[in-house]
Amino acid sequence: MKKKRLTPHLWFEKEARESAEFYCSVFPDAEIRYTAMVRNTPSGDCEVVAFTLAGQPFMAISAGPLFKFNPAISFFVNFDPSRDAHAREHLDALWSALSEGGTALMPLGEYPFSKRYGWIQDRYGVSWQLILSNPEGDPRPFIVPCLLFTGKAEEAGAFYRSVFPGSEAGQLVRYPAGMEPQREGTVMFSDFRLGETWMAAMDSGYDHGFEFNGAISFMIDCDTQEEIDYYWERLSFVPEAEACGWCMDRYGVSWQVSPRFMHEVMTCGDQAIIDRVMETVLTMKKFDLAALERAHKRV
After folding, report:
1. 248 near 241, Cβ under 8 Å?
2. What pLDDT, on the 0 to 100 scale, is given for residue 226?
3. Which of 5, 23, 199, 289 has a CA that sits 20 to 30 A from residue 55's CA?
4. C-alpha–C-alpha distance, residues 44 and 41, integer Å
5. Any domain includes 210
6. What confidence category does residue 299 fall into, taking pLDDT thresholds of 50, 70 and 90?
7. Closest by alpha carbon to 1, among 249, 250, 225, 273?
C-alpha cells in the first residue's frame, strides 16, 4: 500500500474562498488549485476550494455553522534560519498578517524552546504556531499540523503510526516535574510522520474548554476500495459520526476517507456530473468506489 499524503480540510460557515485567497496572499509558494460548487446538500449549496500553502495541500468548504474552529488542531509554521537567512523577518511578517483581526493565544516573543515563537488564532478562527526553528535540529516541513491532547498524545501518535504505512516516530519531549498543572511524563511536544505527512502532538494539563471537532479534518485520498476499507476499518470509532466518507476516531479527530478520483469530478467542469456524483455521496457512510464511478459515468 502506498504512503499517503494527508490534506487538512477546513470547514467554514461561508468564508472558504475568502480565507483561501487570504492565506495564498500571505504564505509563500501558495496557489488556489480549483474551486467547485456542491449543490443540494443538507447545508444547501456549498463552495469547495482546493489550495496549497508552501507545498502543503489544503481543502476548504463553506457549509454553514455546524462546526467552529478551536486550538485543538493548529498548524506549526517552521521558520528555519539554516534554510532562510531572513527567517525571523519572514516570521514577523506572517505574524503581522495573521494577527490582523485575530487573537494572540501566546504572544510573539522569546520562550525557553525558541528564540521567536507565537500562537495566533486568525480572523477566521484557524490557529497557527509560528516558530523560529532550531537550525541544528532535524529539518521539518514548513507547515506541520498539530493535535492538542489532554494526556493521550503519546498513545495517539503510536496508534496513528500503526495505521499509516511507512510512518516513523520523531521527537518526544516530556514535561518534567514541577510544571503544574502539566502532569510529569506527559508530552510537552512530539512529532511523527504519517505516510508522507509530518504531524505534531502535545498534551495540555489545562481545562481549556474545547476539544476536537469536524472544523478541521484530515483527508486520505484512496486509489482503491481496498484502501478505503483499510483506513475506514482502523479509524472509524463513532458510528453516529459516519457520513459521506467522514468518520471520527477514538480520540475525536475527524477523517475523510475519500477516493482520489473525487478531485477529477470536482475539476471536470460539468456541473451535472458533480451533482450526480454528489447525490450518490449523500447516500453513503463509507464510500463505495464502484457506485461513485457508475454515477460518474451514468451507468
Report:
1. yes
2. 98
3. 289
4. 5
5. no
6. low
7. 225
